Amino acid sequence: MDRRHLLSLMGAGLGMSAAGPALAGGDDKPAAAVVNLQGVGLPVIAGGRIRNYVFVSLRLHLSASATMETVRAKDAHFRDALVKAAHRTPFTVADDWSRLDATALSRSLMASAARIAGQGKVSRVEVLNQAPRRRTGIPTG
Question: What is d(CA 100, CA 130) in angstroms, rounded to the nearest whole number?
Answer without folding.
Answer: 8
